Amino acid sequence: xxxxxxxxxxxxxxxxxxxxxxxxxxxxxxxxxxxxxxxxxxxxxxxxxxxxxxxxxxxxxxxxxxxxxxxxxxxxxxxxxxxxxxxxxxxxxxxxxxxxxxxxxxxxxxxxxxxxxxxxxxxxxxxxxxxxxxxxxxxxxxxxxxxxxxxxxxxx
Length: 156
Hints:
This protein is an alpha/beta fold and 156 residues long. It contains four helices and seven strands, in the order E-E-E-H-E-H-E-H-E-H-E. It is globular.
């Protein structure tokens, strides 16, 4: 497996990652044992970067990854996303309090003290110009709840 630095995070991640949307069961039936076996096989093959979101199976994907983290001793980085639960999915609903709530849910699902990487999940573009959102994210980094944060986009 080849590894590279992920931006300015300092994380040396595998060039191949595990996308965990399907193990959340949002698109059909999945078996948690098979999902865990796939996660373990990926780590066995050198994958150390997993992408998930709080909406993948309404936290199911994160909970399975949390179990993997407890069963393995290797360093495994998890990128999760927050914001897609906002209904309606509009800028006015992207508040620091909403994101804080989503972060707390992901910390609980993954059973970790800090998220390696939190990404705002396809936010409305107006969010990029909302200083209070980024102040909140910076505050969560300072508080030790996030190691890094960014944005996951559907379109530019």
